[in-house]
């Protein structure tokens, strides 16, 4: 795309934004000389992570009414802030919000730093938020790239590479549009386009101010962008667990090695977990199959077959524990297998 084409697209989007900008509680009007208070921009960006504008708006009003400055928020009681955040979800954000406000109050005399690099050092402020605050509050020419911007760029340029590998290229393409001309309005214009016109499903290309220069629109397959890599299927494994009962209400457990999955936790004696584990009972006993439970770990799913027997085993590694206590102490996968064995 030529520099002139970029310029034309920028002008078209900013003109559209002047006429169609969403009215949001943390915004000033497009082109307005007075920039938005960085405290309000920062708070809105933290609240909008994982949350819609409609859901975040009443919280934004309540927070800024109760704590109008970053100094007021820094001095707030933790419990008050957490209670005010209730219902907004992802509570680590509220803890980071407070920690960040205290950093700004203590280390920056209550004044938000005005560069991306300095903003990035604040607690809970990632690359996107730092760029957004630098651009919107301080008029810095920052490359503000979130999922909306990635989607618009992937369509404008018909980027065939799949996400997430395409991310650096999409960021580079977004950077072509960054300019000292209206740096505060540009990211907000892109955000509004992504929210209202270049939507993930059913983009409204016929109403789009950028359609004249959009490769995906010309191809007629806008919705197929951004291309996404298929998620790898979770592998499936099998295993056997052996529940030895002593006939006095106790069951034999082991302590798992410190390293690895469920490291250091109590567990049942058992086989390896693999595509075809060997069935080899660890002790001679009259083993009976009790059934199979399924458990899903982050990286694989497991069918674990429980076997049960009553007897003794002379093995110092075994930890004999009351059955009720064992049920309360085992990690979920083993608790499910023990429940099946005891049923
Ligand atoms: Fe998105 Fe369609 Fe506009 Fe292209 S023309 S930027 S696909 S809404």
- Let me know the number of strands: 6
Alpha-beta content class: alpha+beta
Question: In percent, how helical is the residue content?
Answer: 40-55%
One letter per element, helices H and strands E, the order comes to HHHHHHHHHHHHEEEEEEHH
From the alpha carbons, calculate the radius of gyration and give it in angstroms. 29 Å
Secondary-structure topology with pairs:
Blueprint: H1 3-20, H2 38-48, H3 53-66, H4 70-74, H5 78-85, H6 92-107, H7 116-120, H8 127-138, H9 147-156, H10 167-175, H11 185-196, H12 215-219, E1 236-245, E2 250-255, E3 266-270, E4 288-296, E5 301-310, E6 319-322, H13 323-329, H14 332-342
Parallel strand pairs: 1-5
Antiparallel strand pairs: 1-3, 2-3, 2-6, 4-5
Helix pairs in contact: 1-11, 2-3, 2-8, 9-10, 9-11, 13-14
The structure holds iron/sulfur cluster (SF4).
Characterization of this structure:
The chain has helices spanning 3-20, 38-48, 53-66, 70-74, 78-85, 92-107, 116-120, 127-138, 147-156, 167-175, 185-196, 215-219, 323-329, 332-342, and strands at 236-245, 250-255, 266-270, 288-296, 301-310, 319-322. The model has no long low-confidence stretch (mean pLDDT 92). It is of the alpha+beta class and 343 residues long. Among the domains are: 36-138, Orthogonal Bundle (Endonuclease III, domain 1), CATH 1.10.340; 236-342, Nucleoside Triphosphate Pyrophosphohydrolase (Alpha-Beta Complex), CATH 3.90.79.10. A 6-stranded mixed beta sheet has the order 4-5-1-3-2-6. The chain contains 14 helices and 6 strands. Strand 4 and strand 5 (301-310) form a beta hairpin. The chain binds iron/sulfur cluster (SF4). Iron/sulfur cluster binds at residues 152, 155-156, 197-198, 203-205, 208, 210-211, 214, 216-217, 222. The site of iron/sulfur cluster (SF4) has 15 residues, from helix 9 and helix 12.
């Amino acid at each position: 795309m030529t520099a002139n084409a970029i310029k034309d697209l920028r002008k078209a989007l900013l003109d559209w934004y002047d006429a169609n900008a969403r009215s949001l509680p943390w915004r000033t009007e497009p082109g307005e000389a007075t920039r938005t208070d960085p405290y309000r921009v920062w708070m809105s960006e933290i609240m909008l992570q994982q949350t819609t504008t409609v859901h975040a708006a009443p919280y934004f009003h309540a927070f800024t009414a109760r704590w109008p400055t970053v100094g007021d928020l820094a001095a707030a009681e933790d419990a008050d802030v957490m209670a005010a955040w209730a219902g907004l979800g992802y509570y680590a954000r509220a803890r980071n919000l407070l920690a960040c406000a205290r950093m700004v109050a203590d280390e920056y005399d209550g004044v938000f730093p005005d560069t991306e690099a300095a903003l990035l050092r604040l607690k809970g402020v990632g690359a996107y938020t730092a760029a957004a605050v630098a651009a919107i509050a301080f008029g810095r020419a920052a490359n503000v790239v979130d999922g909306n911007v990635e989607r618009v760029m992937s369509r404008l340029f018909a980027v065939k590479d799949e996400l997430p590998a395409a991310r650096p290229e999409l960021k580079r393409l977004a950077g072509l549009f960054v300019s000292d001309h209206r740096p505060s309005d540009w990211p907000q214009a892109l955000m509004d386009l992504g929210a209202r016109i270049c939507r993930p499903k059913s983009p409204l290309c016929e109403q789009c101010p950028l359609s004249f220069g959009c490769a995906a629109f010309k191809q007629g397959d806008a919705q197929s962008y951004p291309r996404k890599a298929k998620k790898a299927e979770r592998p499936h494994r099998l295993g056997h667990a052996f529940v030895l009962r002593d006939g006095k209400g106790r069951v034999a457990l082991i302590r798992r090695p410190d390293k690895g999955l469920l490291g250091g936790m109590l567990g049942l004696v058992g086989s390896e977990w693999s595509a075809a584990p060997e069935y080899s009972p660890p002790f001679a006993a009259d083993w009976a199959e009790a059934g199979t439970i399924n458990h899903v770990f982050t990286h694989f799913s497991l069918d674990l077959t429980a076997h049960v027997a009553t007897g003794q085993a002379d093995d110092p590694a075994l930890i004999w524990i009351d059955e009720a206590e064992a049920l309360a102490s085992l990690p979920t996968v083993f608790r499910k297998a023990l429940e099946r064995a005891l049923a």
